[in-house]
Amino acid sequence: MMKYLLAIAVALAGTLGLAGCASRAQTVGTVGGAAAGGAVGSAVTGGSTIGTVGGAAAGGIIGDQLGKEYDKRHP
Fold first, then answer.
1. How far apart are CA 9 and CA 75, in angstroms?
2. Of 18, 28, 34, 41, which alpha carbon lies 20 to 30 A from 68's?
3. pTM to 2 decimal places
């Protein structure tokens, strides 16, 4: 359990660093995507650290892109 929480914390810390210069929509999308992606990655791989971090990274990227699209549509 501790390994899982540490992986989530590391993934979210990296995501917050990347989202620091983004708009509010991008930041919310990135952080939300990373959290959801980490949870899904962990569930799919049975709690694997690599699955959790990989899911968080993929979710963060997807959330960031969705935030950019939201900003384009809502100036």
1. 32
2. 41
3. 0.68
Amino acid identity of 3? K
Within 1-75, residue ranges assigned H as helices are 2-18, 24-45, 49-73
pLDDT tens, the chain, 75 aa long: 666 677 777 666 666 655 555 577 778 888 889 889 988 998 999 988 888 889 999 998 998 899 889 888 887
- The single-letter code of the amino acid at 13 is A
> Distance between CA atoms of 42 and 18, rounded to whole angstroms?
22
The label of the residue with tokens 């992606």 reads 37
Name residue, tokens 């990274």. Answer: 57
Contacts of 28 (CB under 8 A, 6+ apart): 63, 67
- With beta carbons less than 8 A apart as the criterion, state whether 38 and 52 touch: yes
CA distance 3 to 11: 12
